[in-house]
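Exam prep: given the inputs below (a chain plus heme C), describe the expected output before reading on.
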Amino acid sequence: MINFHKDHKSLVNTSLTVFAGLSVLVAVIPAYQMQETQPLPAMQPMTEAQTRGLDLYISEGCVACHTQQVRNIEMDKVWGGRPSVPSDYYYSKKRMDVWRQSPSLLGSERTGPDLTNVGKRQAGQEWHLLHLYNPRIVVKESVMPAYPWLFSEKSEKQLSEKDVVVPVPAAFLKPGAKKIVASREALALVEYLVSLKQADIGGEPANGFIPSVKKPAAEGSGTAGLPDGAALYSNTCAACHQADGKGLPGAFPPLAGSAIVNDADPGQLIRIILQGYDARPEYGVMAPFADVLGDEEIAAIATHERSSWGNQAPAVTAEEVKKIREYILTLKP
Ligand code: HEC
Ligand code: HEC
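Solution:
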């Protein structure tokens, strides 16, 4: 019988063996198994620009406030359609060198939202550029730091064809400031952010969120039976068109007083939400929402927009949206 009180060699050797054994069990074997992970069929390899964006994401320390992991718990449901799996990180897990692990994108701090699916929530390049230049331009109460060093100032004359000018409102510029131009790094970072979309694994995930008790749908506050249009607007549209519906000059048009929103016939409004919109050079591009929002949700949002900020137009029904969605589908080849 070893006496640990007297035999210090045995004490050291035994604890060393237990330590080494546990390390193999909880670190080495799982790491080894991870190397056999395959990408999901729906995943695309990262482009060169996206990879540079990822490097910048790491070097700028975005991971200090943002996670990229949807945990298998109820409260993480808002960040993705399913819990994250090892395959999700297949393309972003490259090792830095023999001695250093791949930088952890999982993160452990959510001062800002989880970014696993941010490409689906915020698809617009303009929005991301404005947000990186100064988050307060698009989200008034944001505590996220600004990253002005990812942009340069140029005068009208210095501008070249290729320059991407960011429509920063005058209130956020120093007096006499020139045009704000996105750097190659800023564009790569945005390309990376827009590419962050959870790959579809088809059907209900085997390991669904726990506890997966289905709560009865919340009572609609809008028109009979429709979901809450104000909440949907705030989650899907307000980032660009702003909570007060006034938009941002030079980037996103106002919905308050908009002829399209107030039209007695909601047809064009519904088409814009379904198909996206890029009609005028002075504004950016709006991405389509056909794959993101259901008929009832679109009806609720449209109804909310038509009855807020002084707008006064009749409500929109899910049937109207359904008809236009079906019509649009017949146009597709
Ligand atoms: C000090 C903490 C902090 C840091 C560092 C930070 N963020 Fe944020 N981020 C936030 C907060 C808070 C929000 C929510 C408010 C907002 O949208 O601005 C946010 C929001 C975002 C959003 C919008 C998410 C959504 O769901 O709409 C994106 C994209 C984003 N950050 C990207 C970045 C990138 C890229 C970096 C690094 C260059 C970064 N953040 C660094 C705190 C941070
Ligand atoms: C990423 C930013 C962005 C988001 C998010 C967004 N939009 Fe837009 N929206 C735009 C831009 C940019 C335009 C102008 C496009 C143009 O005219 O070239 C626009 C135009 C519109 C117009 C036309 C208004 C007019 O009078 O010209 C309507 C209506 C509209 N959006 C509704 C919505 C609704 C509803 C949502 C939420 C489901 C939404 N948008 C989400 C960027 C956005």
